[in-house]
């Protein structure tokens, strides 16, 4: 390929910073990304051919840059997990909460949670929190 323009180098860096870049590198798609970037810059120019738009859509889908392409490939973007979030010593101990009258809860009391109940509650809260966030972060794929 001929020498890249400044705009192509900018787009190249932007696209290789995307989570999908892990898959591109794994499957050796460097040339496909280069072609996509070059055609993208061409499509930005005044008077670009209309057929270039259809090509761009196909290239974007093949590089998993569209939501439908990610869904069909069963690829999901997720946030990176912090180690401290999962490996806390407090997660193994039962939760002790104070009643309104300041006496301690005991096993069997309403409101007392065992370690496994707390872990399930924390997992459910994380899942609700993750479901409410936009898709971003690290690429998680079922592809091999």
How helix-rich are the residues, as a percent range?
40-55%
Order of SSEs: HHHHHEHHE
Major beta sheet, strand line-up: 1-2
Question: How large is the radius of gyration?
Answer: 24 Å
Q: Structural class, from helix and strand content?
A: mainly alpha
CA-based shape: elongated
Q: Quote the average pLDDT.
A: 75
Low-confidence stretches: 88-93, 95-102, 135-144
Percent in strands: 5-15%
Termini separation comes to 30 Å
- The tally of strands reads 2
Q: What is the number of independent domains?
A: 2
- Our count of helices gives 7
**Largest sheet geometry:** 2 strands, antiparallel
Question: Summed up, what is this model?
Answer:
This protein has 144 residues and is mainly alpha-helical. It is built from 7 helices and 2 strands, in the order αααααβααβ.
């Amino acid at each position: 390929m001929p020498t890249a323009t400044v705009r192509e180098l900018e787009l190249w860096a932007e696209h290789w910073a995307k989570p999908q870049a892990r898959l591109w590198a794994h499957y050796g798609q460097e040339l496909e990304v280069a072609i996509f970037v070059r055609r993208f810059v061409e499509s930005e120019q005044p008077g670009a051919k209309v057929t270039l738009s259809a090509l761009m859509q196909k290239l974007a889908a093949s590089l998993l840059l569209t939501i439908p392409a990610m869904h069909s490939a069963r690829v999901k973007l997720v946030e990176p997990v912090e180690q401290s979030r999962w490996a806390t010593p407090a997660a193994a101990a039962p939760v002790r909460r104070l009643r309104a009258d300041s006496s301690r809860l005991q096993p069997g009391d309403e409101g007392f949670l065992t370690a496994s109940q707390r872990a399930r509650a924390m997992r459910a809260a994380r899942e609700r929190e993750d479901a409410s966030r936009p898709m971003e972060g690290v690429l998680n794929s079922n592809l091999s």
